[in-house]
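hey m, so remember when u said the tokens were messed up on ur end? i reran from scratch. heres the input so u can diff it against urs
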Amino acid sequence: MRRQRDFLLLVTLTAAVGTPALAQTATPAVGAVWSGKQGAAAIPDFSGVWRHPSLPGFEPPASGPGPVTNRSRRNGVSNYNELVGDYTNPILKPWAAAVVKKYGEISLAGITFPSPANQCWPEPVPYIYKNFGMQMLQQPHQITIIYDEGPDVRRVRMNESHPAQLKPSWYGDSVGHYEGDTLVIDTVGTRTNRPFAMLDLYGTPYTEKLHVVERYRLLSYEEAKEGLERDAKENFRPPVDIDRSYRGRYLQVHFTVEDEGAFTMPWTATITYGRGSGQWQEIICAENRHEYYNNKDSDVPTAQKPDF
């Protein structure tokens, strides 16, 4: 299976690469060549197991245009049992709003509509933040990000530009560079001709014009607290492997989504990761014959009598 092969490859890579040293130097600007010489600032060390505590996951911004959120509430926060996206969000173009509304109606009818997560398909950015766990492997030429369910794997080429002739792919073409203590990842070219092409658990669609910029930074607890509070006001927090009393360094991803085909304006959100137990579990998404969207099992050939 493709995902199992990727996982085994990354385990081998982790053993070979090891934990990035704090003495590594900051990379030059995009387009430059890695020199390997000591620079003015150290590369931030994002290694280890990071987890965020909530579903559906996005933390709406403190102000300005933000992501689609859940119209269905339970105990004041998103009701994960009913994924009814707010199709009145002004970021949505009319056709995109109609798609979100349709999925919400399916959910209100008590049916779980198919998505990349429940159908075991690759999850595009930012849908992929639905995964609780994340690890990052840092090399001078490449950043590899693995997520705990599947696992999904992303590879980011460092200090390069997007190719002029870009072939769309599951996770898009991602290039990165460091800006001081911040890792910036720019992604374009995410496949649209695929099943379950959506950016979040509400079915929000995207087009070939999708452009996502992620900014990763390490924060103190006091700096991360505001994002954690925004998360607690919006999202459901199931019992997951995360230390909620942790007061060390947090990892926050601030991302901006642009897609003039689906959205009327750019919008932003954050994901704030804390620390888990340090254990990394291999969670395999296995396909099954249950059709969530029809609430029945798929028809498969059945013998009238045993053939043994």
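this time it looks ok to me. Residues 1-40 have pLDDT under 50 and may be disordered. if urs says something different then somethings off w ur setup not the seq
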